[in-house]
Q: What sequence folds into this?
């Protein structure tokens, strides 16, 4: 009989991993989680954890009882396990003497499961009761097909995620959960919603394969490849189910899953390596996060040298440090991540002081925070952020900004007061000093959108999308007088975020006013009140620009379209009305536009349209 304390620890780990997964921040891979579940099944087959749907909770949302339970799925990782499922179906269906036993296979989407009855979109919850997440549709989640098609999955277009978000989010599901659970969405998620890349996909709309049991087992790999090519969503396997209702009724369900259905999952390619060092990085907001530097190892065609470690709590819980041997995995199209810890580190080296400024760190749940606003790393990243987002000045890369900070330049006010001689005194060469000084002048005189100017200050919870939204209601020259109540009154901003943005603006009020006084050449965002009265041929039209433009840059064209009320998008979707093509256009966007029936026009045709 296994030790009860070890079982309790295993259940606690499973609960922790499940909670993190449901919150959009998975700590382990699906395969490792499933292995732990099977371990618990061997040790304690009657454990209550095994006989329930792993719960998900969305606070401050109304609970909804499902008319039919939304259960989990049993899993098969090998052909042998799939064969056992098929054999069980035939055995239990035999007394019914069915004329046919048909298996249906559909893609298993890796998102957030839900049920849409046409009025309410509800999450799965604990299988019997879920939560009303209809607000996700109000935020811009697109429904594929039509409302009311029942069970489905909230997901993001895989091609869109890989092109725009793969370096910002570890997994597409993280973004989706954030949209559902947050009062307001961050800039990246907002853009994805505007581009109609986040969707509720009813299972009934997915491509499918049907056949008998023998055909299924023999062709499962071909079926998997064929279905993967037909959907542009993250997949973590296939769903195999019996079609005939009488057989479903006879097989029934456990408290955890329907016995007539199984998920066929792929463990993905894995590799083992040793942790050489934990690198601690200080972010712009003071978060101190770890990165595992590992011995280089080939994985799915790439050489892996760095693996994300999330936060200090992640390292503590997994006992990861120098010398630890870990297994990493790349499953499907997802970027490599930790699969398992093979050998724990003998010692843990979690910093107690900031690795840059030596200020004592503050613990915030699993995170470490450097509270020193004058920390050189935070200052450097804030200045870098300014130039990266503003986008109108060259030469201010990481090394240059580091040198400025090392020479006591810690604010934007100080940066823009520098002369050519100041740069020379800091050790820059004569030519570079001239270029750096000229770049500051160019950044002030070259036209730039006011929302980009505002977003460049790095105010918490105020990225590019929300900056544009804010300036649609309040002009840039009044922004330092805005209150939390003013922000909350704008659709899409929540109470917590409004307070955060208001505090952030007031904290750097003098800097914003100083930079405005320098006379930046700002292109002002049209006010919503003005837009409502505008008569424009492209008002509310979704437009994507691609290729090299002749009559100005692509950004010029985008700005022009926005000022005329268009919804400028970065990827072609069902919500795109026009694909505007310049020179040297790639085939991908045009093929997608042709597939969706989007109107394709040239740059000149676009100009003719807006001047008609």
A:
């Amino acid at each position: 009989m296994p030790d009860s304390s070890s079982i309790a620890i295993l259940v606690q780990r499973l609960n922790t991993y499940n909670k993190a997964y449901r919150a959009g921040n998975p700590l382990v891979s699906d395969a490792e989680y499933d292995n732990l579940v099977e371990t618990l099944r061997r040790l304690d087959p009657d454990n209550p954890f095994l006989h329930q749907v792993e719960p998900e909770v969305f606070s401050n949302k109304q609970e909804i009882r499902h008319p039919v339970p939304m259960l989990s799925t049993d899993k098969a990782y090998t052909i042998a396990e799939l064969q056992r499922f098929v054999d069980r179906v035939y055995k239990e269906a035999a007394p019914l003497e069915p004329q046919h036993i048909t298996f249906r296979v559909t893609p298993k989407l890796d998102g957030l499961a839900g049920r849409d009855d046409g009025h309410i979109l509800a999450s799965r919850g604990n299988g019997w009761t879920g939560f009303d997440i209809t607000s996700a549709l109000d935020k811009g989640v697109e429904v594929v097909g039509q409302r009311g098609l029942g069970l489905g999955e909230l997901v993001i277009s895989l091609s869109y995620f890989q092109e725009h978000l793969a370096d910002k989010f570890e997994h597409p599901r993280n973004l989706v959960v954030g949209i559902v659970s947050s009062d307001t969405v961050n800039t990246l998620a907002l853009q994805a919603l505007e581009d109609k890349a986040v969707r509720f996909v009813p299972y009934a709309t997915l491509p499918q394969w049907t056949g008998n049991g023998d055909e299924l087992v023999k062709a499962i790999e071909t079926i998997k490849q064929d279905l993967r090519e037909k959907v542009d969503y993250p997949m973590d396997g296939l769903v195999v189910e019996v079609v005939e209702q009488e057989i479903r009724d006879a097989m029934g369900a456990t408290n955890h899953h329907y016995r007539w259905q199984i998920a066929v999952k792929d463990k993905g390619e894995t590799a083992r390596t040793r942790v050489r060092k934990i690198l601690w990085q200080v972010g712009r907001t003071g978060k101190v996060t770890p990165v595992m530097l590992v011995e280089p190892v080939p994985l799915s065609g790439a050489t892996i040298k760095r693996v994300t470690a999330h936060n200090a709590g992640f390292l503590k819980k997994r006992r990861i440090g120098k010398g630890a041997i870990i297994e990493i995995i790349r499953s499907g199209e997802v970027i490599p991540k930790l699969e398992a810890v093979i050998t724990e580190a003998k010692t843990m080296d979690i910093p107690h002081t900031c690795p840059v400024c030596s200020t004592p760190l503050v613990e915030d749940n699993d995170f470490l925070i450097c509270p020193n606003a004058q920390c050189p790393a935070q200052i450097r990243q804030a200045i870098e952020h300014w130039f990266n987002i503003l986008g109108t000045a060259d030469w201010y890369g990481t090394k240059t900004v580091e040198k400025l900070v090392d020479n006591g330049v810690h604010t934007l006010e100080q940066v823009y007061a520098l002369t050519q001689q100041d740069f020379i005194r800091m050790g820059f060469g004569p030519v570079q000093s001239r270029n750096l000084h000229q770049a500051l002048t160019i950044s002030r005189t070259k036209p730039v959108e006011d929302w980009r100017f505002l977003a460049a200050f790095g105010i918490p919870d105020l990225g590019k999308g929300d900056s544009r939204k804010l300036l649609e209601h309040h002009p840039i020259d009044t922004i330092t007088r805005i209150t939390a109540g003013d922000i909350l009154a704008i659709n899409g901003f929540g109470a917590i975020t409004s307070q955060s943005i208001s505090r952030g603006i007031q904290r750097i009020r003098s800097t914003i006013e100083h930079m405005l006084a320098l006379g930046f050449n700002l292109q002002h965002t049209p006010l919503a009140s003005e837009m409502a009265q505008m008569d424009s041929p492209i008002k509310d039209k979704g437009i994507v620009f691609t290729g090299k433009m002749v009559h100005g840059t692509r950004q010029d064209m985008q700005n022009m379209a926005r000022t005329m009320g268009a919804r400028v998008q970065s990827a072609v979707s069902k919500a795109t009305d026009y694909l505007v093509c310049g020179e040297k256009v790639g085939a991908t966007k045009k093929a997608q536009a042709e597939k969706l029936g989007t109107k394709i026009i040239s740059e000149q045709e676009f100009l003719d349209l807006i001047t008609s």
About this structure: The chain has five domains: 4-51, 63-264, 269-369, 376-523, 536-610. The mean pLDDT is 86.
